[in-house]
Amino acid sequence: MSVSIVGWSHHPFGKVEADAEAMVQSVVDGALEDAGVEAKDIDLIVVGHFNGGFQGQDFPSSLPLQSQPGLRFKPATRVENACATGSAAIHLAMNAIQAGKAKRALVVGYEKMTETPGRQVGDILLKCSYVKEEAETPAGFAGVFGLLTQRYFQRYGDHSDALAKIAAKNHRNGVDNPWAQLRKDFGFEFCNTVSEKNPLVAGPLRRTDCSLVSDGAAAIVLTASDDVEAFTKAVTFRAAQHVNDYLPMSRRDMLEMEGPALAWARALDDAGLTLDDLATVETHDCFTTAELLEYEAMGLTPMGKGRIAIDEGWTLKDGKLPVNPSGGLKAKGHPIGATGVSMHILAAMQALGSAGDMQVARSGPTAVFNMGGTAVANYVSILEAER
Asked: Is the pTM of this model over 0.70?
């Protein structure tokens, strides 16, 4: 049995004055209204929330009930899988529907990060690494990717300009995203120049190479695909793959991105597609290095040659495979629990041709790659418009 997305709601990302509960209430109400379903018709609730110390409320599964009395007594579960928490919540809900345990599910992802001091944010995010070996990494998770970037440069040469092109692309795309945290076109020269406004953060990574600390929430309604006639729109999962790899980076060649590559290969095989069939990809650019490596992991370029995709304009909005036409995490923001849900919403909008100024010219299936930790929890979804 396949599963379809039939409604959604997306809160603006950024430094949000509303508290976490208010953001959750907003997207729950919005998603149910968008799908045209009543709370009583939801069979299952899954909440994606990383937390890790960002908020005192660490038992959030029933927060959606606050906004809709009809959700009372529904089964609700909180899910966490580092930065892939939102996709983990979606996949859990899909599994329940495919197993016949639910017909319609509500998935909510949210995070409130900006109230936490910067140094503490870094300490919390490092919990997504292998604490025994990596907890003392300077500059937090940016330091982890700074080391990864240094290794890439040592093996394949300095690619700082390619990273700056990725940053410039995503910031330009973010201008057209009404939910993005940073809607400003910085241009290549600014992103490629170390300056007072764009300092080095960790290793070769500049501020423009790093995603933002963000608040935000997003929600979707899922249903069994044999139920889609009841809805005005439906985007169906042609594939959904989840691959976990070792947590310690010391046990892997980090530049090979074997977990993401395997998740991509399995998803494309399940869908009976190749990259050439895809209209667009929303990928996990927590750092620009991640997007560069993901070009290679998805098979767009050979290993060590990811820069070809950005140098040749392949991943631009009008390229042969637009990547992150939403602006990605880089411009949109990265409220951890909400990120995967947001990515699925944006990919679904592209599939339907309803992405407004973000819409790419190509039509066809769209894909999501959402990553938890440093290529540890890897999720690939391939979506196609049903109606």
From this structure: yes
